[in-house]
Structure formats: C-alpha cells, structure tokens
Amino acid sequence: MRLGFPEVLVIMFLALLFFGPSKLPTLGKSLGEAIRGLKKGLAGDDEKQPEATAQQLPAQQPTAAPAPAAQQTTTRS
Q: What is the pTM of this model?
C-alpha cells in the first residue's frame, strides 16, 4: 500500500485539526527525537555483539591487584 499526495494531505489536515497549530511543532520535535533514539539504539546493538564474543573466550587467570600506596600523615605545627 502506497500513500499518494492526496492521502498525505488528508493526514496532515487531520493532524492539524486534532492537535492544533501550536502543538504541531512540539509533536514533530518529539517524533524526531524518538526516531533518532530508535536509530541510536539499533546502532548500539552492533557494538554489543563483539562484547558477547569476548565473553565467550576462555577465562584468563586473574592478575593480582597492585598494593595500595601507604598513606603519609603530616603534622602541622
């Protein structure tokens, strides 16, 4: 099903009728932010896949953490 020019005009007219001219810019902005967030979320899924393969590798022996530095106390006169 394809939308032609007359159908798009009817949809735009109904949106203007339902939401009013003052709400349409706000509605468009929030719709754009939602679409950007969706695209960002979908792109973020690609970044998570290499982490999953890294977790599937055999575990390495844990290394010892460096000893904490000794605290030096100074006395003031």
A: 0.43
Q: Tally Cβ neighbours within 10 Å of residue 36.
A: 10
- Which residues does the chain have with pLDDT short of 70? 45-77
And the tokens for 5?
């020019």
Separation between Cα atoms, residue 70 and residue 61, nearest integer Å? 27
Q: What is the 3-state secondary structure (H, E, C) of the chain?
A: CCCCHHHHHHHHHHHHHHHCCCCHHHHHHHHHHHHHHHHHHHHHHHHHHHHHHHHHCCCCCCCCCCCCCCCCCCCCC
